[in-house]
Amino acid sequence: MTIDYKALQAIPQREEPYHIVVTAAHHDDIEFGVAGSVARWIREEGATVTYIIITDGGAGSNEPDIRREQLVERRYQEQLEAAARVGVDDVRFLGYPDGQLEATLDLRRDITRVIRETKPYRVVCQDPTAIFVHRGYVNHPDHRAAGEASVYAVFPSAETRPIFPELLAEGFEPHKVGELYLNLTQSPTHFHDISSTIDLKMAALSAHVSQIGAGEDFENGAKKWLTQGNRDGGAMVGVEFAEYFRVLKFDEERESWYKEEMERREREMALK
After folding, report:
1. How many domains does the chain have?
2. 123 contacts 150 by C-beta, under 8 angstroms
């Protein structure tokens, strides 16, 4: 798919404080993908944020002698530190086995529970439709499973009373989410200028020492690669650094499918 960067919209700034839930398969997914946006939403819009880390992180090493329990604990602490560096103090760990994630009803229920409890206006998750990303990356199946479960937790599960009646018994009433943001997507509709928070994003990423190393290893590895990636993303839309999302709005009247289709065709024709 060819992306028409000229057609992408800048994410508008909200005037009143609001809550966001960000889901991710692994410890460090948020830092690689959306931490710049999270930091900006908190610092500039007064948002509060809950992270849901779905797997236990236990498959995050190929070292033959490492004990899984030790790695799980280390990644738990790294994620707490990474979240704190952008201003997030509510991190939920669901503990599903890393590398074996499936979009089960149990997982969807667990995410739905947090959505109903915290009542976010916006949910951010990984795009479950992305398989081959650019030329050299096969999307991790855990990412896709996490995204699928999150999307269906947002709709229909979070807002529909007869779904998961056990959550009603726990005291969690239905909640309708206003916006869904998909990251790691091949079909972005919006970009977010993270020039003011790129340093916070890199500080958060640097907490994941078990995954990306420290010192020169970090500076010349993950930091250099990701900074350049966000810089290239910014250049495509005329800002210094950017992150990308596919945005679905549930708090506005739907436009007709015909109008959306005509706009899509016009964009495709303009690229020819």
Report:
1. 1
2. yes
Contact predicate 208/31, CB 8 Å: yes
Q: Model pTM?
A: 0.92
Do the Cβ atoms of 197 and 39 come closer than 8 Å? Answer: yes
CA–CA distances in Å: residue 166 to residues 3, 113, 148, 171, 267: 43, 10, 21, 9, 46
Q: Running DSSP on this structure, what letter comes out for residue 235?
A: H
d(C-alpha 263, C-alpha 260), whole Å: 5
What are the structure tokens assigned to 157, written together? 């599960």
| Cα separation values, 190 from 17, 154, 243, 244, 250, Å | 21, 20, 9, 6, 16
- Residue 38 belongs to what domain range? 5-271
pLDDT digits (tens, 9 = 90+) for 105-161: 999 999 999 999 999 999 999 999 999 987 788 999 999 999 999 999 999 999 999
pLDDT in tens, 203-225: 999 999 999 999 999 999 999 99
| Residue 269 confidence class, pLDDT cut points 50, 70, 90 | confident
pLDDT digits (tens, 9 = 90+) for 38-58: 999 999 999 999 999 999 998
Three-state SS string over 128-173 comes to CCCCEECCCEECCHHHHHHHHHHHHHHHHHCCCCCCCHHHHHCCCC
Beta bridge partners of 215: none
What CATH number is attached to the domain comprising 199?
A: 3.40.50.10320
* Contact by Cβ (8 Å): 204, 83: yes
